[in-house]
Amino acid sequence: MVGGPVIDVTNFIDERRFSWFQGRVLALCILLQICDGIDLQAIGYTGARIRAELHPTLGEMGWVFSAGLIGMAGGALIFGPVADKIGRRAVMILSVFLFGAFSFAIAFVDNTWELMALRFCAGLGFGGALPNSLGLVAEYVPKRARYTIMGLASLGFIGGGAASGWIAIALMPAYGWRSVFIAGGAAAVVMGVVLIAWLPESLRFLAGQPGRSAGVRSILNKIDPSFQAPPDAQFTVIDEQRRGLPVRHLFTEGRAVLTLPFWFAAFFVLLNLYLLVNWIPILTKDLGVPEEQAVFIASLFQVGAGFAGVTVGFLMDRISPFRILGAFAIGGALAVISLGLIGPHALLLMIATFISGFFIVGCQGCLNMSTATMYPTYVRITGAGWMLGIGRIGSILGPLIGSAILSMALPAGSLFYFAAIPMLCVLGAAVFLSFNAGGFVPKREPRFLDLSPLAGRGRLSSAAKKVG
Fold first, then answer.
1. The domain spanning residue 193 has which CATH number?
2. Which residue from 28, 383, 384, 410 could staple onto 414, CB 3.0 to 4.6 Å apart?
């Protein structure tokens, strides 16, 4: 029996201009990440006030910071494979309601243990939101500008982290630290309702599911209203499907040389990231910097990270991601050492914090975008989720290491000197990847920034063929 033409949805997107529909998907993912960043980083900006009211020890404060990250690790490990099985949309909606509702509930805690428990539950949602939103963006943008647009998308999470500090500055003096969680949690719940109304399912996921051709056809028509697929058209993706546990396929077909260094690098990047974002506000305040100024200095870490997101995406459309990872690791090591040398000089702290955020979060952005493009569709979210999940082990240890160093009554600069060591480990992973995993880097299109229509717009994909 002869079937209709086979239309590869990946080629369909690559051959057309970036549409308003795709822009809507991008905007929704950015807004989701803003909410994620606001609620995740709120604990760092409110930490000094929490210590003053609930009186946790330094060790307990480390666990307060780490509780959400433990949940985040679990959420990433659980929701990655689930999204590859049931779709990105449902997991993203569930995730935003989880972290929104539990963040809101934090405003009503009476003791440190309740705070830890609710941060853990919110963390489950944090872990499911970020990898799925990045994966969805990667699947809806054309290959020629994929890294650049993903870099723009990453601004959501980073901008949310900075906005969390500004919200704290605006609300805490008049309404206390609990108001920060009320505002962030309520915004996330509203965002969940918005996603239910407007977020589409992954086009590649739908194309790989039997009986979902009507949904694929509807999305293709929204991307290109002039496109009319024949009634008997069949939709597919280039990537093959594999049976068995998705995690197993992270190590098959030579992908171990990609997966293990990604996990290694993510562990040390996130260890450093959460060591710094949680303790910088407290350390700068202890140095004698006024509380509002200390929070503002800490927020500049996220501002630097925002510049990194755009820069890394722009560079990855031109240069090997592994070289970029190595260069940013060197920059991050030098930046954190400078933090330890500055002392209580507010302006210099602002500059060094900004530069540290640029390089350290730039490393994480490089890893996030690499996993979202170097793994095949059937295991893409599993790859991103497990990388972040393993990395979260480092993020859990980061705040605890910070509390241990501070409990030893060492100079505050000692914490920043230690932070250079993980960045050198990331450099080692980048060197290994450069020599062993270059074959996984997608080939770059010569017109990577050209979002104009390519030849053949409105026709069937060049990959369309008759099934004999």
1. 1.20.1250.20
2. 410
